[in-house]
Write a structure and sequence with these properties.
Elements lengths: L12 H12 L23 E5 L3 H10 L3 E8 L5 E6 L5 E5 L5
Parallel strand pairs: 1-4
Antiparallel strand pairs: 2-3, 3-4
């Protein structure tokens, strides 16, 4: 079994797409019948999307430069993985991390 994809429902699809495309070169989602918005709370939802990269610091800065809020700067975990957390403009929690074991 392998992970297929994640869908994040947002209030402003165009703004969310612009963020993911500009910061990371990716993006696209839509649901016309509504959803619970991640931006409705001051705290992030108990769900995160992890984006794996060899350069967490650069990805973290790209996210901040494109409107994300810093939750936790990049830090190395005891097992060697580098991880940071940001909240994108639509409220979604993003973990930016190196590959485990990398």
């Amino acid at each position: 079994m392998k992970f297929g994809y994640a869908i994040a429902y947002v209030d402003d699809v165009e703004a969310a797409l612009q963020f993911y495309e500009t910061a990371f070169g990716m993006g696209q989602a839509n649901l016309p019948d509504g959803y619970v918005s991640a931006s409705d709370s001051d705290r992030p939802l108990g769900l995160e999307i992890a984006l794996i990269t060899d350069d967490v610091e650069a990805a973290h800065q790209a996210a901040l430069d494109n409107g994300a809020s810093e939750l936790k700067a990049a830090a190395q975990k005891p097992w060697g993985q580098v991880v940071s957390y940001v909240r994108c403009p639509s409220g979604i929690l993003l973990e930016l991390c190196t590959p485990i074991g990398g």
